[in-house]
Records
---
Amino acid sequence: MQFNKQIIQLTNEGLGIRSTARVLGIAPSTVIRKILAIADGIVPPRISNGLERIQVDEVHTFIQNKDREIYIIYSWDQELKRALSLAVGTRSKVNLRSVVNPLLSAEVVSINTDKYSGYKGVVPKKLHTTFKRRNNGIERQNLNLRIHLKRLNRRTICFSKSKEMLEAVLKIYFWCKSSKKTV
């Protein structure tokens, strides 16, 4: 409990597992266990009905090495400046649906995406827009992710070693700020 707030803060600042362990004076395995435990306790925010300007995009990265690519797919509310839903995995319709379906349940007004063909059949035509300028918010957030989380930098030797760890760090980054009451 005593390290959780610090681990959240250091993770949001972009420190890796070993750096966090050195700063806090604890073992890297303890940091990993605590990050996974903190992430398990995070509940994604409730999506309000009737939201407008929802954007969905994906970020390409790797697990362990450049041979194992993976995608971070998430929805972004431009007005509230927060992530609404998240999936980590392949760029498949199953993962796209896991991000889009909570939005559809909340009866959002519109969902803007890039022109990736996978969104056809996942996002209903009456809600789907593909205007490039309407995705500026999520594209900026993609840049923030790459800047703040070293494991997502384009030219780096720091990759997540597992999908679960990447997902845990993203949950902490998106939904657990150190200024709020934490686990």
---
Amino acid sequence: MGSYVQPIDETKGPKKGSTDLNPPQTSLVAGGVMVAAVLGIYLLFTQEISQTVLLVLGLLLGYTLFHARFGFTSAFRRVMSVGNGQALRAHMLMLAVAVTLFAPILATGYTFFGGEAAGYVSPVGVSLIVGAFMFGIGMQLGGGCASGTLYAIGGGRSVMFITLLFFIVGATIGAAHLPFWTEELPSFEPISLATSTGLGYFGAWAVSIAFFGFIAWITLRIEKKKNPPRMAPLPSTKGWKRLLRGSWPMLAAAVALAVLNALTLMTRGNPWGITSAFALWGSKTAAVFGVDVASWGYWSGANAEALQASIFADSTTVLNFGVILGAFLASAAGGLFRFNKITGKNAAASVIGGLLMGYGARLAFGCNIGAYFGGIASFSLHGYIWGILALAGTFLALFLRPMFGLSVPKPKDTFC
């Protein structure tokens, strides 16, 4: 039987067959806690209190992602290559819990700190189709999706720093080009299953739950037919120590991520997002070098204030920093933080993947978190279309990955 130890796209994992825990890297844990504390205190005294709350939520998101190795890139690749739907079923559970929590929040508009809660409901058009397809290719070449890039950096995966850099470049170029894609090319108005169809939030919730159940059933049917390899267990422990060290069950992480996303919605008035911060970071950097980014259509209207303010006033930026720090703490607690070797081929794949993801995310109104997770949880049709097109991009990327020395799962392989 062939053996396939999956290169963890979103972070490093244990060696195949190992269920032993490494000793915790206590000095790194202490350093991470200090950085998180200093950042939290800084936000508490310079920004609104909601920013400090979002930092804590980001820490918990990053910790959860790392501990469960909760992936979007690997989930799509496994189901498209060999028919393993374990991770995709975890997605369906995550989305089911999310819509259950989002429905009353969006229906009432209630938030913790004032303002009204609003989901991610975006237009459906050429921009979405092209962008999501590009993102699907990019995440398979870049070694991780948007959330995966952040928590892989937190885990010390060296090549993902290249992915992030070019993710930011791609997102910035996408921001500059976005008016062409949205204003010059065909597009429909945003469609909400809850408010645009007459179903209401309860009806949209019922339809969503039925759809998630159907997708889960389909993956089980595919597995029965193809008998794909199962995912090997990750290092773990028992009792309360498992909260801090060792792997978490993927289904438990799915519930945790849905709850944390709902808390994010109630804290800042919008669901969890990632890539808008990349466009902000890149645009601010371009402005330093004399580029007139303020003249771009993307930075007009409601976005103009963000361009002029501190990045710490941007809630998505704070969440991103929290995810990285949370993953760092989780990896160090598990004794897994270490940098690894970068080769020419995987560096090239990261450059191309990062550019495709950054540009695609701007065109598609979000990434695997803002569009797929947040969009579907918000009952937006664009979230479902994003998922379909990203799967199509993943299928094409299966033929591209070997060109960069990246492996593709085979039917007789053993997953890690």
---
Amino acid sequence: MTAAAEGSPPLALGRRRRSSLLQTEPAQGFALISPTFLYALVLLVVPILVVVAHSFWTQNYLTIDRSFTLENYRVALTEPIYRDLLMRSLWISLLVSFFTVVMAYPIAYFISFHGGQHKGLWLFLITIPFWTSYLLRVMSWRVILGYNGVLNSGLMGLGFISEPSTALLYNTSAVVITLTHAWAAFAILPIFVSLEKVDRSLIEAATDLGDGPLRRFLRITLPLSSPGVIAALLIVMIPTVGDFVTPRLVGGKDGVMIANAIQAQFSKAANWPLGAALSVTTMVIVTAMAAAAVLIIRSAARLAR
């Protein structure tokens, strides 16, 4: 009895400590995010690890040789066809990101600063085109850019052309135009949220100190909204590199991107290790580009201040 009585206080103290640790904010926060973390781990990290593992193997007809090799990466980085496709994809992604943000920023600025009580309505109207299928919107741009004679009929009726033409189709420009429209709303929303957080009193103070509209924008509004610009760039840049539907439908031979080559390796060519190496190479390069873009924008924002 004496030993039990002497041992019970430390045991009770240990239980109280464990209970207090479980009630702390970090523990409660971890318990809250742990299901989401496990979900992301299973559905995101594990497939990426499988792809990385495949990139170091080789395929002999229908069998996978699991012997370690870097041959797939040599082919992905040195073969002209894959190197050119990767460079073209990165260039298209940069163009789409730039044009999308340049077009999205004025719209987000207008809604944030001049939308008044109708901000929700403006945002609602922006999302209307996205009620339809992505594939349907791509096919619509294929029609607009001249396929099947819709644009050509109008131009022929006005006397500008004498016969149908597909000059606006099957090239890099068609891919850039279609992707810019497809991702416009995804750029407008984060920029709008960032602009909503800009303290209006800072702009009023700059006005009182004699700054003009352009100077106020460059020194206050644009630097403070840079997080939204960065988010928009990342949201647009990363998915567009991996798009293979749009290049296939409106790009033609001149608009083919690296994702089309990867898709071919997993279907027609049936060389999964090479397709995995192309995927990993693209992911690494895009990650490096995104990090460089973030650093450049943040440095520019600090200099502007």
---
Amino acid sequence: MQLISGFIDTYLRLNAQETEIFQSEIAQFEPTQQEVVMQIVTSWMEEGIQQGELKVIQRQLTRRIGDITPELQERVRGLSLTQLEDLAEALLDFSTEADLVTWLQQQQSDYISPCDRSF
């Protein structure tokens, strides 16, 4: 799915007219087929949003606290879209790499895996 998504993002950029044609073609599908196509399109859009958010945050972090280690870069890349949005806001208060490390540790401790929960 990621390979196909990457291919489409790279080679298939639709202009307004092409988007309209694409949408009219989807409208001709059976409702169940429309749902499947829209799930794929939605996941591509979400992935694109997340990648865009990540790119901006990486630039903001570099500007705010300087270059960060590859390990920290990887941890940031592993964040969910919601966490990236939270980081975009939190990093405005960062002054050192240690602030980022603390924030990431807090995110990790806030997340409790469903397997770790005891009922």
